[in-house]
Known about the structure:
By secondary structure, this protein is mainly beta. The chain has two domains: 2-75, 2-Layer Sandwich (Glycoprotein, Type 4 Pilin), CATH 3.30.700.30; 93-164, CATH 2.40.50.100. It has one helix at 76-87; strands at residues 2-7, 10-17, 20-23, 26-28, 30-36, 39-44, 47-56, 59-64, 67-75, 95-98, 103-108, 115-116, 121-127, 130-135, 140-145, 152-153, 158-164. The strands form three sheets. It has a nine-stranded antiparallel sheet. A four-stranded antiparallel sheet has the order 10-17-15-12, with no helix packed on it. A four-stranded antiparallel sheet has the order 14-13-11-16, with no helix packed on it. The model has no long low-confidence stretch (mean pLDDT 88).
Amino acid sequence: MKYHVEVDGASFEVERLDAGLRLNGSDRAAEFAWLADGEIQLTLDGADHRVFARRTSGGWRLTVRGRTFDVGVEDERTRTLRALADRSAGERGPEELRAPMPGLITRVLAEAGQRVNAGDGLVVIEAMKMENELRAREPGTVAGIAVRAGDVVDRDQVLVTLEAEAS
Length: 167
């Protein structure tokens, strides 16, 4: 699977391979193992690195050899879905957050009537054993929530409706 990674304003394309990874088109020898909660042993091109990882609202905060990096990661599928949604968002009106894939709603992070900012988490959907936090694309007010934790949803099912802020 390909991922688009942002680190301190720089963009990288990363693809996991059976043996290693491809970084911006260049194959690299890489192995990693989770040691403990938030601790990773990474071997990259023969060099060992201990990485401390913590999930943040914008992605991940990684600490390697005393340096801390804020990292955004988006898989290719999510990136494609976001680009399609952004292109079709020409008209104004209530914005519907729809399920990008079938899955299980594990958490609802917003309430009806709540004001949200762009990037705020709205719901968490589990699909293929991975949790994906779905976020607001723009600021607005939650007009309605169509799901609860524990609901199984289909692809393209409406999850949350947002009223955009008046310009």
